[in-house]
Design brief:
It comes from Ruegeria faecimaris. Keywords: Membrane, Transmembrane, Transmembrane helix, Transport. It is a multi-pass membrane protein. Its main location: membrane. The chain has two domains: 224 residues, Growth Hormone, Chain: A; 244 residues, Up-down Bundle (Growth Hormone, Chain: A). By secondary structure, the protein is an all-alpha fold. It has a two-stranded antiparallel ribbon. The radius of gyration is 24 Å and the shape is globular. Helix 1 packs across helix 16, helix 6 packs antiparallel against helix 11 and helix 16 runs parallel beside helix 21. About 1% of the residues have low confidence. A hairpin with a 6-residue loop joins strand 1 and strand 2. It is built from 23 helices and two strands.
């Protein structure tokens, strides 16, 4: 008998230590400023439930148009490219960009507050649908700016030496960067969970309110959401205090090893992208989104090719393979708003229950992120994506079951226990965390391997590339919603007239198509990349 074999209790203890205790042990005060900015991004979800109901009940916008709006709302994240280079150029003053982002977020929240509390006055200036589009663009613009700075702050936050002044080993640095990026995703998802809990409290009893009282409640939510820009600004203040304290203790301030040269193609390309997007977005051009996507992807690929020259050939190939896998994983289409409309109209889900779904989803995502951290630190990104793809396929099944009425059969055979709401708890309709988890290994890789004087630029360009995947996802979602048309009842708030009727007959085919694409396409891409010169073992 082998007495050296560890017992089950010992293995569980080791797992608990690697997964939870080690994560807590690696926490440092220097991590807090970027985590506060990331947490603010998560708290932004406070208005997601309100926005979904306001859009459904008061704005006459089709599911395909709303999916198209998601494309335009994603464009600011692509602009992380020139913004990241600005951070490298003006490293000392990068925190000022947080204030710019906070101002844009505040403006978006105040517009939505005006729409829900004074719709007639807002309509006198511009159509409510137009106000909604403006608010929808301003918010992600602010969050994208703040995210660029937070990414740069994560590099600053991770120490390179221990308390005795000795440099950490390569594996120790890798583990610390993985932990830092994991904590960043944890902060975002914790923000989601926190605001979901607040939404549950706010909307307690809201099902008994009439539409006018609900609008007042919606306005209160937007006012409470003004805490978001305050959180991110507080993170910047804490960052300044921590850096000042480190300098007072004799530590040299973190700065690039060499001066960053201006990369004019990045700055001018970003400016040209903004101009092109504005011109096409305001013009009556049928293929404006497709044109912007094609041009943006071309520019980003060009800039990536220039940046890859800063890496060794082997590193460059690994990064290309890694980015390609994550791009395809994030580019798969989603069902679109029609699924949420179906849950509200046909299944009777109210604001409070959607908030409960958001809370449960966020908590499960948080647990999954913590549990998977050792796995992500020791396994290749390809293996992580395969696992997440299979998980996405499994998590898509409850949506399909609800549409085809499985809940009616289960409720009848379980005394009403396993009803639609019970099944929906397994659902990720409100916010899928899998994309957040997939980003952790790549962000950690960049933090470890990118040249010091171009860290923020590498973060921004690679993030822009992977965020282009979300734009591709929005386009795919729009196309599928044009093929499988889903409509809901819309009542004109000023006249009370019905502007649209409900038709969910095509939603089932839409969900099946999305589910198949979401599983098959990423697995094929992982197979192709891992059998090519761009194979990633990182």
């Amino acid at each position: 008998m082998n007495t050296d074999r560890p017992t089950l209790g010992r293995r569980l203890s080791d797992w608990w230590h690697r997964t939870f205790v080690d994560l807590v042990a690696q926490l440092q005060w220097s991590y807090m400023p970027p985590l506060m900015v990331y947490f603010a991004a998560g708290v932004s979800g406070l208005t997601s439930v309100v926005g979904a109901f306001f859009l459904k009940d008061y704005l006459n916008l089709s599911a395909a148009f709303v999916a198209g709006l998601a494309f335009w709302a994603g464009l600011p994240w692509i602009l992380k490219m020139p913004l990241g280079h600005l951070v490298d150029l003006f490293w000392r003053w990068k925190s000022l960009l947080i204030l710019v982002g906070a101002s844009l977020i505040t403006a978006s929240l105040l517009i939505m507050y005006g729409l829900v509390t004074a719709p007639a006055q807002m309509a006198g200036v511009m159509l409510p649908e137009h106000w909604y589009v403006v608010a929808l663009i301003l918010a992600p613009s602010g969050y994208a700016i703040q995210d660029v700075v937070a990414d740069a702050m994560t590099v600053e936050a991770v120490p390179q030496t221990n308390q005795d002044g000795f440099a950490f080993t390569h594996e120790e640095v890798r583990a610390r960067h993985t932990t830092m990026q994991t904590l960043g995703r944890i902060a975002i998802i914790s923000g989601f969970a926190g605001v979901a809990a607040v939404n549950i409290w706010i909307f307690s009893g809201a099902e008994d309110l009439d539409k006018s009282d609900r609008l007042v409640l919606y306005g209160q939510v937007y006012l409470v959401a003004l805490v978001v820009p305050l959180l991110s600004i507080s993170g910047v203040v804490l960052h300044a205090l921590i850096q000042r304290r480190l300098v007072s203790l004799g530590h040299l301030p973190h700065k690039p090893d060499q001066a960053t040269e201006v990369r004019w193609p990045i700055l001018l390309g970003g400016l040209a992208f903004v101009v092109l997007s504005v011109v096409l977005g305001t013009a009556n051009f049928a293929f404006a989104q497709e044109t912007v996507f094609a041009v943006s992807l071309t520019v980003i690929l060009y800039l990536m090719s220039r940046l890859l020259r800063e890496l060794e050939s082997k590193q460059a190939k690994v990064l290309i393979g890694t980015a390609t896998i994550i791009f395809v994983f994030r580019a798969v289409p989603l069902p679109g708003p029609g699924l949420t409309w179906f849950e509200i109209d046909e299944l009777g889900f109210d604001e409070q229950f959607l908030a409960i779904l958001a809370l449960l989803t966020s908590l499960l995502a948080l647990l999954g992120l913590i549990i998977l951290r050792p796995f992500m630190a020791s396994r290749s990104i390809a293996q992580v994506v395969v696992l997440l793809t299979i998980a996405a396929g499994v998590l898509a099944l409850p949506n399909l079951a609800l549409y085809y009425g499985v809940h009616e059969w289960t409720a009848a055979h379980t005394g009403g226990v396993v009803d639609a709401r019970f099944i929906a708890i397994l659902d990720t309709a409100v916010e899928s965390p899998l994309g957040q988890i997939a980003m952790v290994p790549m962000l950690a890789w960049i933090a470890r391997n990118a040249p010091t004087h171009l860290k923020a630029t590498f973060f921004a360009v690679m993030a822009s590339f992977t965020n282009m995947a979300l734009s591709a996802s929005s386009l795919g979602t729009k196309y599928l919603n044009q093929v499988f048309v889903v409509t809901r009842v819309v009542t004109e708030p000023r006249t009370g007239s019905v502007a649209s009727i409900a038709d969910y007959s095509h939603l089932g085919n839409l969900l099946i198509t999305v589910g198949l694409i979401s599983v098959i396409v990423p697995l094929i891409m992982v197979f192709l990349v891992q059998n090519s010169p761009y194979r990633t073992g990182e």
